[in-house]
Amino acid sequence: MRVLHTSDWHLGRAFHRVNMLGAQAGFIGHLVTTVREHAVDAVVVSGDVYDRAVPPLAAVELFDDALHRLADLGVPTVMISGNHDSARRLGVAAGLIDRAGIHLRTEPAAAGTPVVLSDAHGDVAFYGLPYLEPALVKDEFEVERAGHETVLAAAMDRVRADLATRATGTRSVVLAHAFVTGGEPSDSERDITVGGVAAVPAGVFDGVDYVALGHLHGCQTLTERVRYSGSPLAYSFSEAGHRKSMWLVDLAADGSVTAERLDCPVPRPLARIRGTLEDLLADPELARHEDAWVEATLTDPVRPADPMARLAERFPHTLSLVFAPERAADDPAVSYARRLAGRSDQQIAHDFVAHVRGAGPDERESAVLREAFDAVRADDALREVAR
């Protein structure tokens, strides 16, 4: 069976101040063409269809168009909700849409109930594990501790239990939206840390033939059977080095996997350039970036006059301007933001406690801080569900 694996469409999201709906529509057209030209048997979309729980009308219309075009091809599509989606909204009318061959899986309780498709070699069971917010699904999966690994492990126990009841030789595909150990994040993904831990081990998914992951925006191979497709479009300058693509996965009769990367259309390349303003304006090596979306980091010791206007004369698509004067690491003028870069909320809180009283939090205090951050995240998740 030939499966096209994609995820993280983020319909409705802008890139800085640039409206991306046109580029997103271009991707949907490319997706439909790819399904037709490569004789795809099933499409899987591993979450974050939308960028937010209540998407703009234009994004909903584009999603509606995508569903109709995929249904018209007669190729089954399996989708799950991600952490950016409202599972309830995305899952509206799922039962009716099922009849058109579009299978929306947004209910955690249905983790062990697959969409079963068949080819010349028998059945393939597609299990959709929507994004599992630990605080919200803890009771459903009857786990004592609300953590990403515990709830995903419980969901996978249901998958394996169902698979064990099926005919010998039934192949399996799992769709999941999670941060799996070994994956490389970007600046575009929303933090899903719980209890100080965001990642789950790939071993959680043992026992199935292919795992189609969503959440991280870079296309990645964790094992031959566990892969991220990444987002089809870049949504931050941290993705400047990404090759945006989808996985074309061939699942053989014995469950073995071969996969090929298929490139997605690039509306405009990204470039991150760094130096003094005068150097950026004069360097001939930068000519290749003159038509790109640009993030410029200025290292001038003193902020120059009208930097954005001057940069735009050479780089008309400059979207982001960062000031980072080159100073010694111990210079007090080094920005607070630079000192915090790459640190989690919990680490920042620990540093603050240490700064205020001269010693960091002990084990009990660390647990209190962790519980406080988890409670805030759970409240945010509940508000998203209620919207």
From TrEMBL:
Nuclease SbcCD subunit D C-terminal domain segment(s): 267-355
InterPro entries reported in the protein's UniProt record: Calcineurin-like_PHP, DNA_Repair-Maintenance_Comp, Metallo-depent_PP-like, Mre11_N, SbcD, SbcD_C
GO BP, sorted A to Z: DNA recombination; DNA replication
Domain Calcineurin-like phosphoesterase: 1-218
Keywords tagged on the record: DNA recombination, DNA replication, Endonuclease, Exonuclease, Hydrolase, Nuclease
SUPFAM superfamilies xrefs: Metallo-dependent phosphatases
CDD domains (alphabetical): MPP_Mre11_N
GO terms of molecular function: 3'-5' exonuclease activity; endonuclease activity
Pfam family, one: SbcD_C
Function: SbcCD cleaves DNA hairpin structures. These structures can inhibit DNA replication and are intermediates in certain DNA recombination reactions. The complex acts as a 3'->5' double strand exonuclease that can open hairpins. It also has a 5' single-strand endonuclease activity.
Known partners and oligomeric status: Heterodimer of SbcC and SbcD.
Sequence similarity: Belongs to the SbcD family.
Official protein name in the record: Nuclease SbcCD subunit D
Organism: Streptomyces collinus (strain DSM 40733 / Tue 365)
